[in-house]
Amino acid sequence: MRRSTTAGILAHAMRLKPRLGAWRRHLHMYPEPSMREDETAAFVAERLREIGIDKVTPGVGQTGVVGLIRGRRAKTVGLRADMDALELEEESAAPYRSRRPGLMHACGHDAHVACLLGAAAILQEINDRLPGGVKLIFQPGEEGSAGARFMIGDGVLERPKLRAIAALHVAMDTDAGKIGIRRGYDTARAEDLRIVIRGKTAHAARPDQGVDAIAVASQALIAIQQFIARHTNLVDRKLVTFGIIRGGTRANVLADEVELIGTMRSLEPEGRTAMVGFLKRDLRRLVGAMGARLRVEIEKDGYPPLLNDDRVVDVVEAAAKEMLGPGNVAEVPKPNLGGEDFSFFGLAGIPAAMFRLGIRDAKKGFTSPGHSSTFDMDDRRVLPIGAAMMAATAVRMLEEF
Ligand SMILES: [Zn+2]
Ligand SMILES: [Zn+2]
Q1: 137 with 55: CB under 8 angstroms?
Q2: How much distance in Å is there from the Cα of 187 to the middle of ligand 2?
Q3: DSSP state of 36
Q4: Which residues pair with 179 in a beta bridge?
Q5: 182 with 205, same domain?
Q6: What distance in angstroms lies between residue 310's CA and the mean position of ligand 2's atoms?
Q7: How many whole angstroms from 286 Cα to the centroid of ligand 1?
Q8: Residue 48 CA, ligand 1 centroid: distance in Å
Q9: Which pLDDT score is estimated for 74?
Q10: How much is the pLDDT for 203?
C-alpha cells in the first residue's frame, strides 16, 4: 500500500469525525438485544445507501446486513462489525445515554458499527483504485446467539467468496489512540453449563431421612474448583464459573433439587477434555456417594476459541504502524477467557483476525470495563482511528491475499 493511500485514509477518517460520533450516539440511544436488531439493521442499510453503495442486502442471518463495495478486480475481502446490545440498565448522565430501559450498548458494538460505516465511506470514495471488492458484514447476535453462524449459513462467505476477513473490538485495557494486536489464541471456547443435583426432601430436623441437595451442591462446587486447581495442567487455560445457584423452597424443608448454571471457558482442548471428563464421570460418583443424582448439560454449540490468523495480524500490524506510528501499536500479551463468535469465520476456513481499538482514557474518566453499566468512551477521539484502521486493513488484505 502506498504511503499516500494510508495518509489519505486517515485524513478522510478525521473529516468523518462528526458523522462517526453522530452514528454511534444514535445507536447508543436506541440499543436492541441479540437477534432483534431490526432498527439498527435499517439504520445501517440507510447509511450504506447514503454513502453510495448500491449493493445492500438486508436479512442475511436474520437481522444481519451486508454491503458490497466493488473494486477493480474480482477478489473480495471482508470486514465485520457486530450490532447487538446487552440487557443491562445504563448508569450515565451523558446526553446520548440509552433511551431504552434495561438495554445498553455496554460492549461497544455501537462503536463497531460506526467504525465499519466510516470504513465503508472511505473505501467507497476510492473504489476505482481498490484492487478488489470489500464485503461489509454487519452481524447480529454476538452476545450469546452465535449470529455469525446464521450469516455463514446464509452464505455470507460466498458469492463473492472472501479471501480474508478482519474485525475490531474496542478494548478498555488498551489506551485510547492505540491499536492492540494479538497472535494465536485471542478468546476462549465458551460453553453454557447447567448442573442439576437431585436429592430427596425431608424435614429440616431429620436430614437423615432425605438427601440434602444444598449440602451436596456445596460439595460439588468445591470439588469442581479443586479439580481444576489440583488435577489439571494449570498451563492449559480454562475455568468454570457459576453465575446462578437455585434450589429449595422453605427454611425448614430439605431442598430436593439444586440447579447450578454457569459457563465453562477453555483455550487448549486438553483442558476442556479434562474438565468435561471430571463433570461427567467423577462428579457423578462423588454426588452418588452422598446419595444424590447428577445431571450435567453442556451447551452443544458454544463459541469456539478465536485463533487469529498470523497473516491477517501481519496486515493489521503493518497498517497500524504505518498509519499511527510504531509507538501506537501494542502486542496484547495474553488471550482472555471471554467468548467471541467472530471465531466462526476462521473456523469456516477463511483467514480471520480481530484487533483491538484502545478506548481507555483515565483523564477523561473512561475506565469502566465492558459489560458494566458505566461503560463509555470518547467516541470522537477513537472512532476515526477505528474507521481508518478498518479501511486500511481491507486495502492491505486485498494486496496480500
Ligand atoms: Zn460483549
Ligand atoms: Zn463485544
Answers
A1: no
A2: 11
A3: -
A4: 329, 357
A5: no
A6: 22
A7: 35
A8: 25
A9: 87
A10: 97
Question: What is the reported pTM?
Answer: 0.92
- Burial of residue 293, with CB atoms counted within 10 A of its CB: 0-12 exposed, 13-18 middle, 19 or more buried: middle
pLDDT, tens digit, 9 for 90 and up, residues 219-237? 999 999 999 999 999 999 9
- Cα gap 11→1, rounded to integer Å: 16
User: How remote is the CA of residue 82 from the centroid of ligand 2, in Å?
Assistant: 7
Cα 53 to ligand 2 centre (Å): 26
Neighbours of ion ligand 1 (CB under 5 A): 107
Q: Please give all residues whose CB falls under 5 A of ion ligand 2, grouped by chain where several chains appear.
A: 107
CATH code of 106's domain: 3.40.630.10
Looking up residue 213, the CATH number of its domain turns out to be 3.30.70.360
- What is the domain extent for residue 243? 189-298
In this prediction, residue 29 carries a pLDDT of: 98
Among all ligands shown, which has an atom nearest to the Cα of 370?
1
C-alpha 278 – ligand 1 centre gap (Å): 29
- Ranges in the chain, pLDDT < 70: 1
* Residue 311 Cα distances to 171, 331, 393, angstroms: 22, 15, 12
